[in-house]
Design a protein that fits this description.
Layout: E1 2-8, E2 10-11, H1 13-31, E3 35-39, H2 51-60, E4 64-66, H3 78-83, E5 87-88, E6 102-106, E7 112-119, H4 130-144, E8 147-153, H5 157-166, E9 173-177, E10 187-188, E11 194-196, E12 201-206, H6 213-222, E13 233-245, E14 251-260
Parallel strand pairs: 1-3, 2-12, 3-4, 4-5, 7-8, 8-9, 9-11
Antiparallel strand pairs: 1-13, 6-7, 10-11, 12-13, 13-14
Length: about 280
């Protein structure tokens, strides 16, 4: 059986949520998508996530929600991480951290899709070994899910590629996130694992990684903290569409997806809740 999984790049603030509300349901219908995975760690004001935003993303059509290094930036998400079964924080954080190591979604075809997020260790905050963590999880995942997708939330392209090669033939897809810049190296490895170094971001492209170019440049030039306000222009959805054979567990097709906003932002007023901008020189 062929299963289509749509993986959505880091959702940045209100513009990223707005375009998903506008386009995701239609895209799911047009492409007969079976499962949607989305990284939402930047969905509230550019850093973190709230319960209200989590609930909205689920209504927009997201089935599995992943988070990265900003997973605990907003404390109100912790009960959601503890109590909801379709949202995960990085699996190689402390075993005492709130949240789950993986999540599983059952498609309308009866095929189950699991997602695991691994956080990188190069140019990132300290974390446990991602190789050891995924090795310890794989046997359990294979017994509970038909297909396994692994998100590598990391800064270094070499680290993402190495983990992708390491997992070739052991999972259906490895995709990178965190840098917000879509790479053009989508491929299917020899063992049948679909791979891309980074799936990009969902938000304003007229920006620096989703933030106002002016505020980011000011911070870089002065080395002083400024609010990294969310930009607003040229909003797009970035992601990948992967087709997997549920019997062999191997990917058969991977395609980069870029969808542009079609409705003027001022015509959409339903999504008003947002976090405050992050007052640090970081993303």
């Amino acid at each position: 059986m062929k299963v289509k999984v749509f993986c959505i790049g880091d959702i940045v603030g209100r513009p990223g949520r707005r375009i998903l509300a506008e386009q995701l349901h239609a895209f799911i219908r047009e492409q007969t998508i079976d499962c949607v995975i989305a990284n939402a760690e930047n969905s509230a004001g550019g850093s973190g996530m709230t319960q209200q935003i989590y609930e909205k993303l689920c209504r927009y059509g997201v089935n599995l929600v992943t988070l990265g290094d900003h997973c605990f930036r907003k404390k109100e998400i912790i009960p959601v991480l503890e109590n909801q079964s379709n949202i995960v924080r990085p699996a190689n954080l402390s075993p005492y951290a709130a949240g789950k190591d993986y999540a599983i979604f059952t498609t309308s075809k009866g095929v189950t899709v699991a997602v695991v997020t691994l956080i990188g260790r190069i140019f990132m905050k300290p974390a446990d070994c991602p190789y050891a963590r995924i090795d310890s999880l794989l046997s359990k995942l294979r017994s509970e899910a038909d297909l396994v997708f692994v998100e590598v939330h990391a800064e270094a392209t070499s680290e993402k590629m190495a983990l992708g090669r390491y997992l070739d033939g052991r999972v259906s897809c490895v995709f990178g996130s965190h840098t917000h810049v879509m790479t053009a190296d989508e491929q299917i490895f020899a063992g049948g694992t679909a791979y891309i170094t980074d799936i990009g971001m969902t938000g304003p492209m007229d920006s620096v990684l989703g933030r106002s170019s002016e505020s980011v440049i000011r911070a870089f030039r002065t080395q002083m903290p400024y609010p990294f306000e969310i930009a607003s222009g040229d909003v797009k959805i970035h992601g990948i569409l992967v087709t997997v054979d549920s019997h062999t567990k191997k990917a058969e097709f991977i395609e980069r997806i870029v969808l542009s906003e079609t409705t003027p932002p001022d015509a959409l007023t339903y999504d008003s809740d947002d976090g405050k901008p992050d007052y640090t020189n970081g993303f």
